[in-house]
Amino acid sequence: MTQPVVGHLDPVFFQIMDDVCEMLRRIFHTGNTVTMPISATGTGAMETACVNVLERGDTAIVCRNGYFGVRLADIAQRCGANTVMVDSPWGKPADLNALEDALNANPGTKMVGLVHAETSTGAITPLQDAIDLTHRHGALVIADAVTSLGSHDVQVDDWDIDVCYSASQKCLGAPPGLAPISFGERAMDVINKRESTVESFYFNLQGVAEYWNETQRVYHHTSPITMIYAMRESLRMMMEEGLEEQHDRHARVATGLRAGLTAMGLDLATDPGYQLNPITVVNAPEGVNEAEVRARLLNDFDIEVSGGLGEFRGRVWRVGMMGNGARETSVLALLSALEVILGDMDYEVAYGASVAAAQRSFANHGD
Amino acid sequence: MTQPVVGHLDPVFFQIMDDVCEMLRRIFHTGNTVTMPISATGTGAMETACVNVLERGDTAIVCRNGYFGVRLADIAQRCGANTVMVDSPWGKPADLNALEDALNANPGTKMVGLVHAETSTGAITPLQDAIDLTHRHGALVIADAVTSLGSHDVQVDDWDIDVCYSASQKCLGAPPGLAPISFGERAMDVINKRESTVESFYFNLQGVAEYWNETQRVYHHTSPITMIYAMRESLRMMMEEGLEEQHDRHARVATGLRAGLTAMGLDLATDPGYQLNPITVVNAPEGVNEAEVRARLLNDFDIEVSGGLGEFRGRVWRVGMMGNGARETSVLALLSALEVILGDMDYEVAYGASVAAAQRSFANHGD
């Protein structure tokens, strides 16, 4: 990011843009031409997906099993879609039976929104069955992979995801501010056949894609040059490590973290069969002031743990171990800090037990 | 930008946010509480202004005297407003008589869009009379100060601008990717009394402002932390130099540049009474391949000059001398490079004359 800022129409920058797009295609596992970063955070990509696909009066179904499903439904509604909610409990994956009922009850549904990795609850929703089901009903799938891309398998082509997006600052390991997105042919057909103008200029895919397309390069808005430099570098680092290796590292670190937290007597908020690796959501124990614990972690130990969002506000801790931060040492530092803080709060702590459990887990990983 | 990326809800970051807002208020010359950077480029701020103020069926008037006026009208239309165009020739300021006619012909107009500094033509439109006129008709003024903020006077409170926005990468001297915006009380009243939901989530002012407001800090979207660091530093550098001094530097550099270009026999595309300082728009002389000149400037001299947009495409060079780039040495480098390139192209050049004219202008500045 300290490289000189060149112009957004400088041929030198075009090469950087092409590098970014090519690496994003490898990470999304797609041949989709329309694959690039949106000049906004993940929420901007969520809006880009909805505002281009949906027209006023369309029907959309959104599976809500956490805060970002709620947000996706909100955005679909702002786009003027009749939005049908398929709710399932926070901490669990989306409910496919309820999705099937909703698709049956709403023939002509244009889009189904699914959150692959629900950052608010730590739950992953396996996508393949939901995608097949949605396609049998003739609808498009929009999949939110903000927290899964780079830590879990995301197969845009094999799974046949129509629109998939992520964000720079999670498992891709760049600073926040960019949001990669990929549109498949089925989605592009729908967008090209729109009757109404896309209601956003900034997120209008046609304009954005004409700038990113290597044969067009038409000015749409000034690209955030420095952020694109950062993303190229973070993607190169991913390529250097290898995608499989990066996924395995996230799994190893998360498994050790969960072992340590459990050894400390803490409960995880996420259905055991559906736990994300980059983020672990822990129920704050009764009688402990969860915000005070987070404040002490930050102030005394330089460790940031997030609080709960929405329904989980004030009830959980969300521990991110993602991108370059997903390291064994981060786990050990957190566990030992938590032991100290919880011990001070009269929570019964067997000092050292959590760190030992994590270490055993790391050592046994892959056996 | 090389500082560690902290969390968007870290108290350390809140202080940085407050610093940014406070300096932005000083630069906008406003006491407006709702003053902060949007997590997008200038076009995103343009959309933020329109999508929050306008509801479907409202009437908007947009003065179009260049490419960004055209864009502002496009965005107002995407917001569902009946959009009345007040056109005036490119290179000239907005036409206030025509604006008055349009206001008279469209009672109940909600918003008038004005581009203070038209980056595509190099023309500045003095705002005070247009604002007074608009307010007499009960409408709000949205003013685009993307290229003027930091190089020309922009007085949000004294002039009574209702919504004013800019961009990080022009005269504020930060990398592209953020767009400062300020909303006055009259605009906030209109927004608070909306009947319909704002159609964008990402640009929804209520959500953005709740995060930036120092007493709320509610998560809306992940802030582009590193970009905010960059903007704080660029604003500090502006404070160090002084706003008056920075304006004067832009004027001194632009005056010298214009003197040099004129001495080279080139014509400026902008009405002489309304020339912006940060950007100088030059008519490419007949018989000269303008794109080739720009390519040689970039490849042989590392100097980027922009081509024309819209009506001006293929006809003009746009020379930006803005932010930290607005320096006498930049002017001399460009003029001497242009002499070499144009001389090679059988354009008659009196070598050295343009540089001498610029030097005389610099020396006489302020007399």
TrEMBL record, chains A, B:
<keyword id="KW-0808">Transferase</keyword>
<dbReference type="InterPro" id="IPR015421">
    <property type="entry name" value="PyrdxlP-dep_Trfase_major"/>
</dbReference>
<dbReference type="InterPro" id="IPR015422">
    <property type="entry name" value="PyrdxlP-dep_Trfase_small"/>
</dbReference>
<dbReference type="GO" id="GO:0005777">
    <property type="term" value="C:peroxisome"/>
</dbReference>
<dbReference type="InterPro" id="IPR024169">
    <property type="entry name" value="SP_NH2Trfase/AEP_transaminase"/>
</dbReference>
<dbReference type="GO" id="GO:0004760">
    <property type="term" value="F:L-serine-pyruvate transaminase activity"/>
</dbReference>
<dbReference type="InterPro" id="IPR000192">
    <property type="entry name" value="Aminotrans_V_dom"/>
</dbReference>
<keyword id="KW-0663">Pyridoxal phosphate</keyword>
<comment type="similarity">
    <text>Belongs to the class-V pyridoxal-phosphate-dependent aminotransferase family.</text>
</comment>
<protein>
    <recommendedName>
        <fullName>Alanine--glyoxylate aminotransferase</fullName>
        <ecNumber>2.6.1.44</ecNumber>
    </recommendedName>
</protein>
<feature type="modified residue" description="N6-(pyridoxal phosphate)lysine">
    <location>
        <position position="170"/>
    </location>
</feature>
<dbReference type="InterPro" id="IPR015424">
    <property type="entry name" value="PyrdxlP-dep_Trfase"/>
</dbReference>
<feature type="binding site">
    <location>
        <position position="318"/>
    </location>
    <ligand>
        <name>substrate</name>
    </ligand>
</feature>
<dbReference type="Pfam" id="PF00266">
    <property type="entry name" value="Aminotran_5"/>
</dbReference>
<feature type="domain" description="Aminotransferase class V">
    <location>
        <begin position="13"/>
        <end position="308"/>
    </location>
</feature>
<dbReference type="GO" id="GO:0019265">
    <property type="term" value="P:glycine biosynthetic process, by transamination of glyoxylate"/>
</dbReference>
<dbReference type="GO" id="GO:0008453">
    <property type="term" value="F:alanine-glyoxylate transaminase activity"/>
</dbReference>
<keyword id="KW-0032">Aminotransferase</keyword>
